[in-house]
Amino acid sequence: MADQTTQSISIDAAPERIMAVIADFRAYPEWAGAVKSAEVVERGPEGHALEVAFGLDAGAFKDAYTLAYEWAPDGLAVFWELTKGQMQKAQRGSYQLAPAVDSTIVTYTLSVELAIPMIGMLRRKAEKIIIDQALKALKRRVECTGGG
């Protein structure tokens, strides 16, 4: 699963505010498009989610899957990997935050391998669409709920 898709967006908020939205999994169904449910299965001693079960409904593509999370100590990154999935064989991703002058650059990297065969070009196109929609939704959520 070496191929991955990466995209960045500038969000008018401090990294702490953005990471708080990213870490609030229970609110994902309110803003994260195809995510219909998100339940924290396990939390670490510092309170961060270590494992989250998701229900996804993107029209023709529905899935129930679980991701394991690793949070950077500096609060500027989170990484995840698929531990259980129905339609997915593998998923790796990350959000990495880079503070800028009056904003934060958020970089989302994603690699997905489906249980059904898919041409690499189509898979990368799907990843790009997922990332693009996720970053725009994250930006809207953070900036409309009092960023900075």
Describe the structure.
The protein is an alpha+beta fold. It has a single domain, classed as Alpha-D-Glucose-1,6-Bisphosphate, Chain A, domain 4 (2-Layer Sandwich), CATH 3.30.530. Helices cover 26% and strands 47% of the residues. It is built from three helices and seven strands; from the N terminus they run E-H-H-E-E-E-E-E-E-H. The chain has helices at 15-23, 28-31, 120-144; strands at 5-11, 35-43, 49-58, 61-71, 77-85, 88-99, 104-114. It has a seven-stranded antiparallel β-sheet with strand order 1-7-6-5-4-3-2. Helix 1 (15-23) crosses helix 3. The longest helix has 25 residues, at 120-144. The protein is globular and about 45 Å long.
Q: What are the defining features of this structure?
A:
148 residues, alpha+beta, Alpha-D-Glucose-1,6-Bisphosphate, Chain A, domain 4, 7-stranded antiparallel sheet, 3 helices, 47% strand
Helix content: 25-40%
- Content of β-strand: over 45%
CATH architecture: 2-Layer Sandwich
Distance between the termini: 36 Å
User: With helices defined by DSSP (H or I, 4 residues minimum), what is the helix count?
Assistant: 3
Within the largest sheet, what's the order of strands? Answer: 1-7-6-5-4-3-2
The domain tally reads: 1
Oligomeric state as shown:
single chain
Look up the CATH topology: Alpha-D-Glucose-1,6-Bisphosphate, Chain A, domain 4
User: Element order, helices and strands?
Assistant: EHHEEEEEEH
What structural category do the secondary elements indicate? alpha+beta
Protein topology:
Blueprint: E1 5-11, H1 15-23, H2 28-31, E2 35-43, E3 49-58, E4 61-71, E5 77-85, E6 88-99, E7 104-114, H3 120-144
Antiparallel strand pairs: 1-7, 2-3, 3-4, 4-5, 5-6, 6-7
